[in-house]
Amino acid sequence: MRFRKRLPYLLLAPSILILLALILYPLGFALRNSFWFWNLQTSPAPLYHSGLDNYRMVFQVTPFAEALKNTLLLAGLGTFAQFWFGMGIALLLYTHLRGMGLFRALLIMPTTLAPVVAGFLFRYLLEPKGGLLPWLLEGVGFPVPPQGFLGNAGTALFSIGVVDTWQWTPFFAIVLYAGLLSISEEVLEAALVDGASRWRLFWSISLPLLRPIAAFLVMIRFMQLFNSFDLVYVLTSGGPGTSSRTLSFNLYREGLVSYNIGLTAAMTWLVVIIVSVIINLYLFFIYRKREW
User: Fold this and answer.
1) 111 in a structural domain
2) For the CA atoms of the chain, what is the radius of gyration?
């Protein structure tokens, strides 16, 4: 009897141990080396213990503050836009109009593309000379920067967000649509009988019932956007200047271009701390009044 109770834990133990090893070892490796001066261009091994110098250098010799600002803007506004655009599409799908089956099939296609493929696609679409999107926008009188949207410091980060929103809004739409389908029609019909408008029906019944799904979805997508690298690398390479550089691209530049392992390890732990604080604050405010 005891063996039968312990069997599920024994079966799960190997997977848990492997998962912990894959998580804890890299974090421990980064934490140890964040206190050492180690540049692969100088030496294949750490040279000397540097204390907190690497953490100070993160702010002194890298555009960490600007990269953090860009990352927060991209992750926050991108997640917000994708959620509400996705919600609008989900509500449209829920109306059961003719042709929605085909529309659902087409809707998921952007999400199936690798981010690098999506990046190259929009890099050509946004080409300032000959690109389809600038040509269309100029045709309707919309001002297009001479350097193009990707070459202008004021529009580069926004353009990355637009491409990411195009690719991942369908993901929100499909998941939220599934959530809408899970809501009991009896509850909605009862509210309609009581005289609730469509807007009140959505705001007071559908949205609160979708809250568990939406909260998890927003958290996962925010963390993905916070680690954005593919689109940044393909579309702008963090430029012009550092106007669209994100934390992940900063890590790439310091670790795989400059080979500054100690500095990159310190930056990694700063990113881990920042993400942990943001996610824990988010979970605290979302789940503090758990009545659902």
Assistant:
1) yes
2) 24
Report if residue 196 sits inside a domain.
yes
pLDDT in the model for residue 290: 58
Kindly state whether residue 28 falls inside one of the protein's structural domains: no
Q: Which domain holds residue 158?
A: 64-244
Pair of tokens at residue 162: 């637009």
**268 located within any domain:** no
- CATH no. for residue 135? 1.10.3720.10
Number of domains, the chain: 1
Q: Is the dihedral of CA 284, 285, 286, 292 positive or negative?
A: positive
Q: Any idea how long the chain is?
A: 292
pLDDT tens, residue by residue, 166-191: 999 999 999 999 898 888 888 877 87
